[in-house]
Design brief:
Largest interface: A-B, 35 and 32 residues
CATH class of chain B: Mainly Alpha
CATH topology of chain B: MetI-like fold
CATH architecture of chain B: Orthogonal Bundle
CATH class of one domain in chain A: Alpha Beta
Number of domains of chain B: 1
CATH superfamily of one domain in chain A: Periplasmic binding protein-like II
Strand order of the largest sheet of chain A: 2-1-3-14-6
Order of helices and strands of chain B: HHHHHHHHHHHHHHHH
Number of helices of chain A: 20
Distance between the termini of chain B: 41 Å
CATH architecture of one domain in chain A: 3-Layer(aba) Sandwich
Shape of chain A: globular
Oligomer: heterodimer
Number of strands of chain B: 0
Shape of chain B: flat
């Protein structure tokens, strides 16, 4: 028995030694950097260019899971095993990273390198990197959605190509004509592909806000927001031009990179689709060769306001290689990276000036993409997502998603759902104020109310 | 004396790694979670750490979501009796002396050692309302037998296949936003879909193995005596097999209740993200949401301890009731 345990121990010790010896290590003399971002095919080339321009580094991607990316980064960083660099998707992510102390304040470091975010980056995406006048990251790219259209499907239906600006009524009429059904009445070609999670886009289009300007109140029950969600609901359940939850489930089954909606559109199952330039990262794939596309701005109601979004790369405050990680952010601010973003069509370059080049408008590799001016123009009307510092973004999302699920499934009238959502989020704001003294002070300063003792 | 001391040291040497592991990875975290359940620990650094006594528990009892998700958890446990009965039935079938019985046993046990995530992805595809196998069969049946027309002819609203994971409906008509019943929610939905899947996974799992072991331990002379007395198959099962399996059944019931109260996390994470409208969020998924999405660690620990208390009470009740019935 003694011999058995002895041999087992020796074998395990030997195997541990082998595992230690063969573990992946950065090439000798190189500084390892780990970046947590989504595993978009474009990301590999962005990393490879950085490694080429900075041979002293070995930058690697740690793929971010779309459903648990924030949790992963937060817990890794707080446990001391976090990446050097990670991406934040919008204001809510940034707020969480800043408030948990994971994001490194790089205001002074950027200034030393002569990088001035306010002057260089599209104003609509500054909120992905700046919190209370302090910089925590650099935007990786910038996006505003527009309406993609499939020229072949338009030609087949004898429809003229849409031109912006155009009203919603016209889009609905075109979408209705381009929605085709099979003999059982099931839709085989959608007039307009649009994901339900894009509801914030509609709220903006209709002039609504999710939060008051100072973030102290949830205003998702405003008449404008109700009208927007009702309109989206009607596109689905009244006009029948947009995928229902059942259709969405079918589309979501498409595997691989890119959402099911992109793949559906690429496969010619949608005549128009609401999406960004970054869709080309998927649609340029040889699987979709021969796809003839056009782009037109989204119809607007009143003022032109479109939802702007993007990622920003942040540095882990606990990383031992923070200074080195700054080189990556400087790379993101530079010409090489921004030109690459535009060539890859990974949305548009975050730095404004790199979008005003002849190469941006006409990429010789993709001469058929003659619509790039549209992407640049709509960026000018971009507005960031509303957010409130007074409520945890994840909690608010859970509440809003639940109510919007009920609307989407036609189980609750829009005004009731949004009124309940606003009430519940405002209750959460009250709870947050009870917990967080710093936010409480800020809240009472903003609202001018007396602070109750 | 010296030998005994030597043996004690040797035993301690063998036990120590396990004790250390238990202390570090089980006892330590459990005690730690008890401590933080009376704190306001939040991963946002702007919230200063404080000991807040039982405030988390008080808040929890006023948390409407907690009660809704508790109801979801209990609802998903409704499949337990069916799963246990199915396991017993399967075990009886697989205890027959048939050719290649080992192959059958392996096949039925297969779901247990297949990755849960893989199984759930498969079931998600089966439940797809458009091209899933279930709805294909249901739609075929409705079309072939003109069921829709028949129902309409009798004044009904028509029949269509359920949308499974996309629907908030359920066979009891549980409400979505508050604890209660409503006819509007009557139907088949995500919760029922998870129950059906749970039954399928559980039937051929460890319960079946336990019953197989239990069946093989029934003294042959009892069965033979019953046969000699002229008892039929049902009478033998009712009066010999079932009572003899009582300890096994008791163990399975206790473990199933514990698993049921702790369950639902994987399904919610992989198949529904807790939706639609929170109808498949269970207590364990709520703990995860609170701790790792909303970063309220103290509050999540409080929910964990309430869950532990519920499991403890249910197990004690099972124990008290079950042990009275155990005569073998």
């Amino acid at each position: 028995m003694r011999a058995f345990f002895g041999i087992t121990f020796c074998v395990l010790a030997f195997l541990s030694g082998v595992a230690w010896l063969i573990q992946p290590r950065p090439p000798k003399g190189k500084i390892p950097l780990v970046w947590v971002s989504d595993d978009n095919p474009a990301r590999r080339d962005q990393i490879s260019l950085f490694n080429q321009l900075h041979p002293e580094y070995d930058l690697r991607l740690d793929p971010r899971d779309n459903t648990a990316g924030l949790e992963k980064v937060m817990l890794q960083c707080l446990a001391g095993v976090g990446p050097d660099l990670f991406d934040a998707w919008g204001s809510t992510d940034l707020d969480t990273y800043v408030r948990s102390g994971v994001a490194w304040d790089i205001t002074d470091e950027l200034a030393e390198r002569g990088i001035v975010l306010h002057e260089e980056v599209w104003p609509a995406i500054l909120s992905t990197s700046i919190r209370e006048d302090r910089a925590y990251g650099f935007p990786t790219n910038a996006a505003v959605d527009a309406i993609w259209f499939n020229k072949d499907l338009f030609d087949a239906a004898g429809e003229p190509y849409p031109e912006g600006p155009w009203p919603w009524d016209e889009l609905i009429e075109v979408a209705e004509r381009l929605t085709l059904r099979d003999e059982r009445g099931r839709i085989k070609q959608f007039g307009l592909l649009c994901d339900w999670w894009q509801w914030t886009q509609f709220v903006m289009l209709f002039g609504g806000h999710i939060y008051s300007e100072d973030g102290t109140r949830c205003t998702v029950d405003s008449p404008e927001a109700i009208e927007a969600i009702q309109f989206m609901h009607d596109l689905m359940h009244e006009y029948h031009v947009m995928p229902t939850p059942v259709d969405e489930a079918t589309m979501a089954s498409a595997g691989g990179y890119g959402s099911g909606t992109i793949k559906y559109f690429g496969a010619g199952r949608g005549a128009m689709a609401l999406g960004g330039r970054w869709w080309l990262c998927t649609l340029r794939d040889p699987d979709y060769a021969g796809l003839r596309l056009g782009v037109v701005e989204i119809p607007h109601v009143g003022k032109r306001i479109y939802r702007a979004y993007g990622r920003a790369t942040l540095i882990n405050r606990y990383s031992p290689r923070r200074q080195e990680a700054l080189d990556f952010l400087a790379y993101e601010a530079g010409k090489d990276y921004n030109d690459l973003i535009n060539r890859q069509a990974d949305a548009v370059a975050a730095v404004v000036r790199y979008n005003y080049t002849p190469e941006f408008l006409h990429n010789p590799e993709y001469p058929e993409e003659d619509y790039n001016a549209v992407w640049r123009d709509v960026m000018k009307y971009g507005r960031p997502d509303d957010w409130s510092p007074f409520v945890n973004g994840q909690t608010a999302r859970r509440i809003l998603d639940k109510q919007l699920d009920l609307v989407k499934n036609d189980q609750k009238p829009v005004p009731d759902a949004l009124r309940d959502a606003a009430r519940l989020v405002n209750e959460e704001i009250a709870k947050t104020l009870e917990r967080d003294p710093s936010l409480r002070i800020k809240y009472y300063r903003l609202t001018g109310r007396e602070r109750p003792e | 004396m010296r030998t005994r001391r030597h043996e004690f040291r040797a035993a301690l040497g063998f036990l120590l790694p396990n004790f250390i592991g238990f202390a570090i990875f089980t006892a330590g975290p459990v005690l730690f979670s008890l401590a933080i359940s009376i704190s306001n620990w939040h991963l946002h650094r702007t919230i200063p750490f404080q000991w807040i006594a039982f405030r988390n528990f008080v808040e929890l009892f006023n948390d409407r979501d907690f009660w809704l998700y508790s109801v979801n958890t209990v609802y998903l446990m409704l499949g337990i009796p069916v799963a246990i009965a199915g396991s017993l039935f399967l075990a009886i079938l697989l205890s027959q002396r048939l050719r290649a019985i080992v192959v059958y046993r392996t096949l039925f046990y297969l779901p247990t050692f297949t990755s849960g995530v893989a199984l759930m992805l498969l079931w998600k595809a089966l439940y797809n309302p458009e091209f899933g196998a279930f709805n294909a069969a249901i739609n075929w049946t409705i079309d072939s037998f003109h069921i829709d027309n028949l129902v309409r002819a009798f004044g009904g609203a028509g029949v269509s296949a359920p949308t499974w994971l996309l629907s908030t409906k359920n066979v009891f008509g549980l409400q979505v936003e508050q604890v209660g019943l409503t006819a509007a929610q009557w139907g088949i939905g995500a919760r029922d879909a998870l129950i059906i899947m749970g039954i399928w996974i559980a039937i051929g799992g460890n319960n079946m193995l336990l019953y197989l072991a239990g069946l093989s331990n029934i003294p042959q002379e009892l069965l033979e005596a019953a046969q000699l007395d002229g008892a039929g198959k049902w009478a033998i099962f009712r009066n010999v097999t079932w009572p003899q399996l009582a300890p096994t059944t008791f163990f399975i019931v206790v473990m199933s209740f514990i698993g049921g109260l702790q369950g639902g996390f994987e399904q919610a994470r992989v198949m529904t993200v807790g939706g639609p409208a929170g109808t498949t969020t269970t207590i364990s998924y709520y703990i995860y949401t609170k701790a790792f999405e909303e970063f309220q660690i103290g509050y999540a620990a409080a929910i964990s301890w309430i869950l532990f208390s519920a499991i403890f009470v249910v197990t004690m009740v099972n124990w008290r009731l079950g042990s009275k019935e155990l005569n073998y």
